[in-house]
C-alpha cells in the first residue's frame, strides 16, 4: 500500500482507499490528503460537482425567493359603468413628473377611496407573480413581508437542525435531505399559492435548507482538497453562484410566468439526493479511528478488487 501511495497519479482519490490507509497508519486527514495528492482528478471532479450543480441550485433557492414576490406596477381598477366618475389620484413631484397613486382613487367630488373595484397590473416590465395573482398590494402587502420573514426565520432554524443531522448521520445524508426538502417545497408553492398558510409552510421549508444545502457541500468538498487548492474551489463556487444569480432574473423575465420559474428552479433539486458517490472525509476518519472489524473487512475486500 505504501508503494501505491507514492504513485499519486496512478489512482484517483477514493474515500474507501483513505479509510483503509487511516486504519493502518496513524495520520490525520490533512497528512493523508497530501500523501495521496491534494488536487488530483478526484478533487477536480468534486469541484465540478460543486460548481455545476450545488452552486447553481443554491442560487436557485436564494434568488427565486425574491423573484416570486416581485410587485408589478399596478393601479386601481375603475368601474366600467362609471369610468369618468372615478380617477386616479395624480400629483407632480419637484421635477414635474406625473405620479399616479396606486392604492387610492378619487371621484369628481374629491372623495378619496381605496381600490374597492380591485387592481390592474402592468406586466410590461415585471411578469405576473404571486403578489399580483393574489392581489397582495396596498393593504395586503404585509403578506409579502411576512413571507420573507418566515423564509429567513426558517433559515435560522435550519442551520442548527441540519447541522445536528450532519453531525449525527454525516454530511452526505444532510445534503441529500436539504435538496429533497427544497425540491418538494418549491414545487408545492406552485400548487398552493392561493393558500396563505400552506404557502408560508413551503417558504419556511425553502428557507430551512437554503444555507445548509450550499454550506455543507462546500465543507464536504474542502475536506478532500489540499490547502493549496481550497482557494480555487471556493472562488469557483462563488463565481458559479454569482453567474447564476445574475442570469436568473433575465430567465424569469423571458419566461414571464412565476409558476414555470418555480418549477425549473425547484425540480432539478431532486437530482442531488440521487448522488451518493462520496462520503465525508471526517466521517471516514471517524470510522477509521473506530477500527471496527466489519469496516476493516469491507475495506480489504474493496482494495483487493480494485488493486
Automatic annotation (TrEMBL):
Membrane topology summary: Multi-pass membrane protein
Domain named Major facilitator superfamily (MFS) profile: residues: 48-307
InterPro entries cross-referenced by the UniProt entry: MFS, MFS_dom, MFS_trans_sf
Cellular component terms (Gene Ontology): membrane
Transmembrane intervals: 145-165, 177-198, 204-225, 232-254, 260-282
UniProt entry keywords in alphabetical sequence: Membrane, Transmembrane, Transmembrane helix
First-listed, main subcellular location of the protein, grouped into a coarse class: membrane
Top-level taxonomic group: Eukaryota
UniProt-recorded Gene Ontology molecular function terms: transmembrane transporter activity
SUPFAM superfamilies (alphabetical): MFS general substrate transporter (SSF103473)
Subcellular location: Membrane
Pfam families: MFS_1 (PF07690)
Protein's name according to its UniProt entry: Major facilitator superfamily (MFS) profile domain-containing protein
Organism: Medioppia subpectinata
